[in-house]
Automatic annotation (TrEMBL):
Residues 5-72 form the HTH gntR-type domain. One of its GO terms (molecular function) is DNA binding. It comes from Luteimonas terrae. Keywords: DNA-binding, Transcription, Transcription regulation. Pfam families: GntR (PF00392). The keyword Lyase does not apply. This is DNA-binding FadR family transcriptional regulator. InterPro entries: Tscrpt_reg_HTH_GntR, WH-like_DNA-bd_sf, WH_DNA-bd_sf.
């Protein structure tokens, strides 16, 4: 039993990191057998990991039809952005402060989505509220595949990230909050284009 739980936990961590890195695209079906081969595991821990991810709203369980990556509607995606913004602003208000380390901003087009995830995760982790850290991580992971998929239509994402990182490194919380509001306001404006892009990519899989 302990060994089975250990395998499931390991698979859960591997799959979650794969989600963060954009290994699977929104709307993609997740085949347990294929995942078992890819991660050198049996079906039981793979299914257990997928059920756990479903419990965190990172994967959809459609019963007999299987597991899928979430493919958000415009309303759902707009809600995700609003939630992420409120959580990060709350983190700023609850004492989030940098630890003096420089936050790397990779040159475009590589790595901007991953670096955004890392910055938002860092902001949350620099608060004393563990529950807030956990909630931000879930919201951040939910948006990670979408950030990876939409990079082509956000041409100045590097400049946006550089502004956020600069404000954070300088502990200029007022400037950071303003940049976070601007970042998420722009994402909400892009929601129709992002959803269209995601749906086109999903259709191309079939």
């Amino acid at each position: 039993m302990i060994a089975s739980q250990s395998k499931s936990t390991r698979l859960y961590g591997q799959l979650r990191r794969a989600l963060q890195c954009g290994r699977f695209v929104p709307g993609q079906r997740l085949e347990p057998a294929a995942l078992a081969d890819e991660f050198d595991a049996s079906l039981t821990p793979v299914r257990a990991a997928l059920h756990r991810l479903h419990g965190e709203c990172l994967v959809n369980d459609k019963g007999r039809d299987g597991f899928y990556m979430p493919l958000p509607t415009e309303a759902a995606l707009r809600g995700h952005y609003e939630c992420m913004e409120l959580l990060l602003l709350n983190a700023c208000d609850k004492g989030a402060s940098p630890n003096g380390r420089r936050h790397a901003v990779p040159e475009p087009p590589e790595g901007t989505a991953k670096a955004t995830w890392q910055l938002f995760d860092t902001i949350a982790r620099r608060t004393p509220l563990r529950d807030l850290q956990h909630i931000v991580q879930l919201a951040n992971d939910r948006l990670a595949p979408i950030r990876m998929a939409k990079q082509a239509i956000v041409r100045d994402a590097h400049a946006e990230l550089a502004e956020l990182a600069s404000a954070w490194e300088r502990a200029d919380i007022a400037r950071l909050k303003s940049a976070l509001r601007a970042y998420h306001a722009r994402r909400r404006q892009l929601v129709p284009a992002i959803v269209e892009l995601l749906n086109d990519a999903h259709d191309a899989l079939h």
